[in-house]
Design a protein that fits this description.
The protein has 15 helices and 22 strands. It has helices at residues 49-68, 71-87, 89-100, 104-127, 160-173, 188-199, 214-222, 236-247, 271-279, 302-313, 334-349, 379-382, 398-406, 421-430, 463-470, and strands at residues 5-8, 11-14, 17-19, 22-24, 29-33, 40-45, 134-136, 139-147, 151-154, 178-181, 207-209, 229-233, 253-256, 262-265, 294-298, 353-356, 369-372, 389-395, 413-417, 435-438, 457-458, 471-478. It has a 7-stranded mixed beta sheet, sandwiched between helices. A 6-stranded mixed beta sheet has the order 11-10-9-12-13-21, sandwiched between helices. The longest helix has 24 residues, at 104-127. The relative contact order is 0.13. The N and C termini lie far apart (65 Å). It is α/β, with parallel strands linked by helices.
């Protein structure tokens, strides 16, 4: 062990940046705290403009060779990274649970296997990435995906490694080099990813990781003239700042932002299924951008729905995320907890009623909450809380349901519960959302486009859409004449 190594749940984690294939320390550090009990995990190197510039320089230097690497070899290395992830699933799971408070059982069984799948999927998709040539007046058109260049990827704290690799994997597969800036509240598994990538044979400088507070290094990364792509997942205000920073260089952006998604429950729905879908929105302590936090229920079944919801919610276990029996863990940070509590207190002061919850628990835990008697134009209905807080409103007609569902500035996702196929088709066509789930929730396929409308984002990623973003698409038009025979 060295002065720059932490032992987290028995796992050694380097606290330094990863730049140009080497560990780089900063003069200053920031403190990483576990949301489980508020204990200090350790001090992490705090990046400055100097580390940001060094990381971009390393990515720029490594880009020509990586871009020229044959597709099959890039895919082989990404599969080797996936192999390394699978070998260290337990290490990654316990470190991430310590760092962000999400359920250990979910990290072991779902999240970390998905991290490996991210690399395998985009490695395999790369090998199928071809467009059939087509003719124009006897001329041949050939479409190709050319690597764009160094890419800055800025990721959130609610699913740190999974959401990082959702961006890293396609960017690397496309032939780009990467500077990853993980969230300052959850930097640890990104550091482990650097170790795994190096062991897998990823060349130095192809993946670089810089840690620190957003604005301190974020502006230096997003305004850098050598950066060719920026992908960000996070809040609308931060996205606005990134957009302004990138504007001078016209750097293309992909932005996956907040949500205030609806769950529409019609009277013809399977109510037990609808209740299960509603209670599922408390997953990860409500810290899920896709969560359907606005429950809209047809008034004829609203009373019965609410009764069953309260019964089901009472069975949800909140506590230590390392415990196999726990369903909901803590809120990520004291600052986020205060934000959640502020939203709820202001809503209660404005006349909302807490059917369940509505209060803080011990430590960084917030009780699962359902608020009724809320106005459509109220803050609690219109703004993203990002905590275990749901609202319930009623509607009478299909038109009213759609109007309420679409009446926010967001458009990330929507969930629909109905027993009528025709209604499902009608309503989904009218909903403003990047993803709509019908009688299900959070079913994701990496080949599908993902992103939001309105203030929920710009662009789509997933499958070919990811390569469309991380590449410069080129169309080569070749004439049938003008050739000389050199045979």
């Amino acid at each position: 062990m060295t002065e720059h190594t932490l032992t987290v749940a028995g796992v050694a984690v380097d606290t330094r940046h990863w730049i140009g294939g080497e560990r780089v320390a900063s003069a200053e550090t920031f403190t990483d705290v576990s949301p489980i009990d508020g204990s200090v995990i350790g001090e992490i190197s705090r990046g400055t403009e100097a580390e940001a510039a060094a990381a971009v320089a390393a990515a720029k230097a490594a880009f020509p060779a990586w871009a020229a690497t044959p597709r099959a070899e890039r895919a082989r290395i990404l599969h080797a990274v996936a192999d390394g992830v699978e070998k260290r699933i337990e290490d990654l799971a316990v470190v991430e649970t310590t760092d962000n408070g999400a359920l250990l059982r979910s990290h072991r069984r779902g999240v970390m296997p998905r991290v490996a799948h991210n690399f395998r999927f985009f490695a395999d998709w790369l090998l199928t990435l071809d467009h059939e040539d087509f003719e124009t007046r006897g001329h041949t058109n050939h479409v190709s995906w050319d690597p764009a260049g160094p890419s800055v990827l800025i990721t959130p704290w609610n699913a740190p490694l999974m959401l990082s690799t959702w961006k890293v994997a396609p960017a690397l597969a496309a032939g780009n080099t990467v500077v990853l800036k993980p969230a300052e509240w959850t930097p640890l598994t990104a550091s482990l990813l650097a170790d795994i990538a190096a062991e897998a044979g990823l060349p130095a400088g192809v993946l670089n990781i810089v840690q620190g507070y957003g604005s301190e290094i974020g502006d230096a990364l997003t305004s850098h003239p050598d950066v060719r792509r920026i992908s960000f997942t996070g809040s609308v205000p931060t996205a606005q700042r990134i957009t302004a920073s990138a504007a001078a260089n016209l750097t293309p952006l992909s932005l996956e932002l907040g949500g205030k998604s609806p769950l529409l429950v019609f009277a013809d729905a399977d109510l037990d299924l609808a209740v299960d879908l509603a209670v599922e929105q408390y997953d990860n302590a409500g810290q899920v951008c896709l969560a359907a936090t606005r429950i809209l229920v047809e008034d004829s079944v609203a009373e019965e729905f609410t009764r069953r919801f309260v019964e089901k919610a009472a069975t949800v276990v909140q506590g230590d995320p390392r415990d196999e029996a726990t369903d909901i863990g803590p809120t990520i940070h004291e600052r986020q907890l205060e934000k959640i509590d502020g939203f709820v207190r202001r809503a209660l002061d404005a006349g909302a009623r807490a059917v369940i919850g509505g209060r803080r628990g011990e430590g960084q835990y917030y009780a699962p909450t359902l608020l009724t008697d809320v106005a459509q134009d109220s803050e609690i209905v219109q703004e993203e809380v990002f905590g275990p807080v749901l609202t319930l409103q009623t509607f009478t007609t299909e038109d009213e349901a759609v109007r309420l569902a679409n009446d926010t500035r967001f458009g990330l996702a929507a969930t629909l519960a109905t027993g009528d196929r025709d209604r499902a088709a009608r309503v989904t066509r009218r909903l403003v959302a990047g993803t709509v789930w019908v009688n299900c929730f959070f079913v994701r396929d990496l080949q599908a486009p993902f992103g939001g409308s309105r203030h929920s984002g710009v662009g789509r990623e997933g499958g070919t859409w990811s390569f469309d973003f991380y590449c410069d698409l080129k169309n080569t038009v070749t004439a049938p004449k003008g050739w000389k025979d050199h045979g």
